[in-house]
């Protein structure tokens, strides 16, 4: 692993952040996780836009440009032989001392981690509905922020790496996976939960919905009961590191996947873009 | 300010935590804020118990005893001339690297901050109902954890230090203040929201309820509409640093406090215990 922070690569002895950074004291930090494919940061623009939106909502004033950020990534990738990497870009609220002032944050810390990919990541999974419910977002929308206790508690419920825990919302609707978004297919229509369930608006989620448009696959976003998902013929989860991961079943064998036509079609289309696409808006309708 | 960490007082150049601590990466850290009065850590046992309960729920294995923790506090107070301090005791999940394993956390970091009290803290406040709603807890109960974005967004709504922002729950019931619990009085009955609203079960909240019992004041815990609170004759907010802070009104002048009999009775009783009480269970019924 290598870590970039505020303009340079850190020595391992420097891998630390201030005990007074609000990213530590209060979880006031946002981040993006993405993959490089042979050095290309897949969908970087979409990650960038989401990060900026979250930081704006949190009133963190971050002046670094997209190009400066890509330069930082190059600096980081120059440390690595392997150019297929797991990258985490974190922007904290910065050092402010103890207490909440309500004023904008003006001195964020920028950290970028480069980690080896997990070679043993499962290529298919089972879905398990969790007892832990998805909590509601901190503000008007779910930020990808340093607020993962809900996910940690869920992960402690499902330790098996071959199983993806699936959250229901407070209201009992299907929300998302612990570290993924969930999709299922019924009669050639792709379904995914609305973000009002508390689900994160995943970058891969958005890209898969764009692919559906491009491929002429009907997609619906809504509030669905577990029963709706359990009567599907295909299902998959998505995130930026693993891409599209098919589910082989959901629940306690209540649903077994019978088909993989649309999942495979989406996986194939996805793979065509990983080495050059910067943002989903580049692919036309 | 002085900071203790893992057995010793840090030099200012050492005020940092690992970039791989899950307390930073994922907000997996719990804390308590309390006051010392002439060196006495008021209600320390109650804070200790709540911290242990939260760390257990998060599967953080913390072996430090209560006495070891009090010794750490003594080490910290020995650095200070002023013995009336704001103390924050933080226990993080520890350094685990990127990713959620679901395994218990076995190497927590223990940090204790000692900060000067705010001499300008208001002795009374106005209550303002926030647009930002209290989000739901991460698990079965609200932990005091590094998850403060909901509170930060609320604080950005109400920058005036003389005003306490008051959260409603997702369901529209009165929940709590941004950094406090809320109480009001109607016809000599004290009311405070149930924690099912998303409110933190504050140590001072618990202590005030105990004082009500001891003083023979009727107290009710429940789910209340803002209208219920707005028709009160007295109101106050509580936290461990400021104690009991009377409100002079709530809403946009919709409620003006007419009386302070019970608030003053509780404030007087509270002050009698600050210099020696370790836990609320020491005062009998």
From TrEMBL, chains A, B:
<keyword id="KW-0663">Pyridoxal phosphate</keyword>
<dbReference type="GO" id="GO:0008652">
    <property type="term" value="P:amino acid biosynthetic process"/>
</dbReference>
<dbReference type="InterPro" id="IPR043131">
    <property type="entry name" value="BCAT-like_N"/>
</dbReference>
<dbReference type="InterPro" id="IPR043132">
    <property type="entry name" value="BCAT-like_C"/>
</dbReference>
<dbReference type="InterPro" id="IPR036038">
    <property type="entry name" value="Aminotransferase-like"/>
</dbReference>
<dbReference type="GO" id="GO:0046394">
    <property type="term" value="P:carboxylic acid biosynthetic process"/>
</dbReference>
<protein>
    <submittedName>
        <fullName>4-amino-4-deoxychorismate lyase</fullName>
    </submittedName>
</protein>
<dbReference type="InterPro" id="IPR050571">
    <property type="entry name" value="Class-IV_PLP-Dep_Aminotrnsfr"/>
</dbReference>
<comment type="subunit">
    <text>Homodimer.</text>
</comment>
<dbReference type="InterPro" id="IPR001544">
    <property type="entry name" value="Aminotrans_IV"/>
</dbReference>
<keyword id="KW-0456">Lyase</keyword>
<dbReference type="GO" id="GO:0016829">
    <property type="term" value="F:lyase activity"/>
</dbReference>
<comment type="similarity">
    <text>Belongs to the class-IV pyridoxal-phosphate-dependent aminotransferase family.</text>
</comment>
<dbReference type="GO" id="GO:0005829">
    <property type="term" value="C:cytosol"/>
</dbReference>
<dbReference type="Pfam" id="PF01063">
    <property type="entry name" value="Aminotran_4"/>
</dbReference>
<dbReference type="InterPro" id="IPR018300">
    <property type="entry name" value="Aminotrans_IV_CS"/>
</dbReference>
């Amino acid at each position: 692993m290598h870590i970039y922070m505020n303009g340079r690569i850190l020595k391992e002895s420097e891998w630390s952040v201030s005990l007074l950074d609000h990213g530590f004291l209060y979880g006031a930090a946002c981040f993006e996780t993405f993959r490089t494919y042979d050095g290309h940061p897949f969908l970087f623009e979409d990650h960038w836009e989401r990060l900026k939106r979250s930081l704006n909502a949190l009133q963190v004033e971050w002046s670094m440009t997209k190009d400066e950020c890509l330069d930082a990534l190059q600096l980081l990738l120059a440390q690595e032989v392997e150019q297929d990497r797991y990258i985490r870009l974190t922007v904290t609220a910065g050092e402010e001392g103890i207490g909440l002032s309500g004023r904008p944050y003006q001195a964020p810390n920028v950290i970028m981690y480069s980690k080896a990919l997990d070679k043993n990541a499962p290529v298919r999974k089972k879905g398990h509905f969790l007892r832990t419910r998805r909590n509601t977002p901190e503000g008007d929308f779910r930020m990808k922020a340093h607020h993962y206790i809900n996910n940690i508690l869920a992960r402690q419920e499902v330790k098996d790496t071959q199983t993806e825990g699936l959250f229901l919302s407070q209201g009992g609707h299907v929300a998302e996976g612990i570290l993924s978004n969930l999709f299922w297919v019924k009669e050639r229509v792709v379904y995914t939960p609305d973000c009002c369930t508390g689900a994160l608006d995943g970058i891969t989620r958005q890209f898969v919905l764009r692919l559906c448009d491009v491929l002429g696959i009907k997609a619906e976003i809504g509030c669905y009961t577990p029963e709706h998902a359990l009567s599907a013929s295909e299902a998959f989860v998505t995130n930026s590191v693993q891409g599209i991961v098919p589910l082989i079943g959901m629940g306690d064998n209540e649903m077994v996947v019978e088909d993989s036509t649309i999942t495979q079609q989406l996986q194939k289309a996805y793979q065509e873009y990983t080495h050059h696409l910067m943002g989903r808006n580049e692919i036309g309708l």
